[in-house]
Amino acid sequence: KAFKVLVSTIGDRVVNKGKDVLMITYCAAKERALKIKKELSQLVPNLKVKLLQAGGLSTTYANKGGLIFAI
């Protein structure tokens, strides 16, 4: 249930801001990032989702298994 709420919330925010690109930075959680990308692509068809592997300072914010989303 939390996964669906997360995807729905991100989708709503992207649509409300009128954006068409979402960046997902993952820290040792590529599979989770890919799953969210797939769900968001179905929810918001025009959305371009780009995945980045965390490194340097961003790992402080995400920690192992974490994700960072940026519109």
Describe this structure in words.
The protein is 48% helix and 23% strand. The chain is built from three helices and three strands. A three-stranded mixed β-sheet has the order 2-1-3.
Keywords:
three-stranded mixed sheet, 71 residues, alpha+beta, 23% strand, 3 helices
Low-confidence stretches: none
- Written as H for each helix and E for each strand, in order along the chain, the element string is HEHEHE
Question: What proportion of the residues is helical, as a percent range?
Answer: 40-55%
Strand content: 15-25%
What is the radius of gyration?
A: 12 Å
Separation, N- and C-terminal Cα atoms: 23 Å
Brief summary:
The protein is of the alpha+beta class. 48% of the residues lie in helices and 23% in strands. A three-stranded mixed beta sheet has the order 2-1-3.
